[in-house]
Write a structure and sequence with these properties.
The chain is built from nine helices and five strands; from the N terminus they run ααααβββαβαβααα. By secondary structure, it is of the alpha/beta class. A hairpin with a 5-residue loop joins strand 2 and strand 3. The N terminus is likely disordered.
């Protein structure tokens, strides 16, 4: 192997450093997709360059960021369009396992999404995992960055602590980088969780609805002023939603009450 490195004129150390930089670049691109979608929905006329200055990604330059936004349908601010990410960006896709799936109980399908919450000039990231049948938020996380170890993994770890004896569970997402990186897949493989992704970032309505409910129905009213307050108030919002808020699709009772009726049936 050392002979090969000498033949191409690079050291083994520099080769692996370059490989790690490339992996970080591709992972960050996937992580940015959900955030760009959220910003564009909140600011329909914000340009890709303005979003770049706002987000300031660590491993993606301005021109590459703009090209990424254009390829994913965010070139025209007023047009809600999405084009499937091509292999040139190194993005992984999973099949949509929910097509034709008949949902009959809890712990069959969980849906998840990541949204942002802005306090002043600081962005924070909220991750929710929702049981699609009962509408119960089984896991969540609040983080200061978009990294997988700060967003989807702690949310899933929380869900796995509260939900036992899972079999053939499908976890559906919109395809952000946090849902296909190696750390995430290692955890889902350990629990035999099957990954599912929608074709478009606009086709995960139940997870997106939870984002809106927690942000607009609770956090905006609570008014957190810093990160510790955001953690406490998001946790409070999830508790209020799970145990008190009536949900029309489950008979105008709370998700907790609905699950109790299922257990008693």
């Amino acid at each position: 192997m050392n002979v090969l490195f000498k033949a191409i004129g690079v050291s083994k150390q520099s080769f692996h450093q370059r490989l790690n930089r490339q992996m970080s670049f591709f992972e960050e691109l996937g992580q940015l997709l959900a955030l760009v979608k959220q910003i564009r929905e909140d600011h329909p006329r914000m340009s890709s360059r303005q979003m770049y200055r706002l987000i300031r990604p660590a491993h993606v330059g301005r021109d590459r960021f703009e090209a990424f936004c254009f390829e994913n349908g965010f070139k025209v601010a007023v047009k809600r369009a999405y084009h499937r990410t091509t292999n040139s960006w190194g993005v992984t896709r999973f099949d949509n396992l929910l097509l034709g799936f008949e949902l009959t109980g809890i712990n069959q399908v969980w849906v998840s999404d990541i949204t942002y919450y802005r306090i002043g000039e600081q962005f924070y990231y909220l991750t929710f995992i929702l049981d699609l049948y009962s509408r119960f938020i089984v896991g969540h996380s609040i983080s200061e960055d978009m990294l997988t170890n700060s967003t989807t993994i702690p949310a899933l770890q929380m869900a796995l602590k509260t939900r036992r004896a899972l079999t053939s569970l499908i976890l559906h997402s919109d395809g952000g980088g946090q849902y296909y990186c190696k750390e995430w897949l290692k955890l889902t493989s350990q629990y035999l969780i099957r990954s599912s992704m929608c074709e478009s970032v606009y086709e995960n309505p139940h997870a997106e609805r939870i984002n809106g409910i927690i942000k607009n129905d609770y956090l905006v009213g609570y008014g957190p002023q810093d990160y510790p307050q955001l953690i406490r108030m998001t946790t409070k919002a999830v508790m209020k939603y799970n145990y008190e808020k009536p949900h029309q699709s489950i008979g105008n009772i709370s998700p907790d009450q609905y699950e109790k009726t299922l257990a008693a049936a």
